[in-house]
Amino acid sequence: MKNLFFTFAGLIFSLSSSAALKTLDGQETHGGNVILAEFWSYHNQVTATFNACPRSIENPLVNTWLKQVVQTEIKTQPQVFVGANNEQEVVALNMPKRNPPLILISETKWPALSSLEKIKIVMHETLPVLGVTDDDYIFSGQLFDSYKNCTSPKYSEQEILFSFLICNKASIEKLEGADILSLNPAKAMTIATYTNCLPAVRKLQDYGGSLKLCYGNHPTLSAESPLQTFIFSYRDRNPNYPEFFDFLMNLDTSELVTDCDSDFAKACTLLKKNMSAYPAKASDLSKLGQKIGCSL
Question: In the chain, where do the E strands start and end?
Fold first, then answer.
């Protein structure tokens, strides 16, 4: 039987000294127990989802999940039974009145569950520890509905990209993790860069977006990357340009020069062309060219 102590604090865990942990490349392996590692992972996944989803707080159970603090012992054993005579085998069992509370997980039944089923079990076993009795999965079902809602985009791709295209800051601010993660990240970053829309770029970066992504030959933008689309955007009089230019100049060069095939050469060629075509912006273009290493 393997066991660990966790502190449920917004579903952030702190491990007690009661468990002998192994490490692999500096990462905790939860005493080598895969089931405990998965339990930890699903807790963190649910918490991160709720934290990235402001509308989830409409459900008071989410607030309970995020704010309660309870140190809990979690164990695995070959089988877990309930009933007066231990006649019914189950996936897991919680003992919220024990000091500290205990959650038992079946080493036989847990591996057979799907990811979503495991998330439901994590919720069902945790809620009683947090003071919410969950008979017949009623409250964990409501919590799971909030989780599903948070992992589904609130807006369509067309609506999101249009907000980037016109750089509607109020609309962009309303976007949540599920909305951003539903996008093609390179396509979204390319559009955000073309319109010099810094709020959109920063929102994309919050969820792993990068200026180094390659989108391919765009029929309208005539460019392969965010860097090229920004240089191309000098053709337009964009009110967002000054702030966006300062943002680019403050980036590390490694964050700006893309990995697209031939992109660097194309970017420099386009930059030189626009220096001649738009003398008013030649100084800025020259600074950008020097930053990325163009031979001007």
Answer: 2-9, 23-24, 27-28, 69-77, 80-82, 88-90, 92-95, 102-106
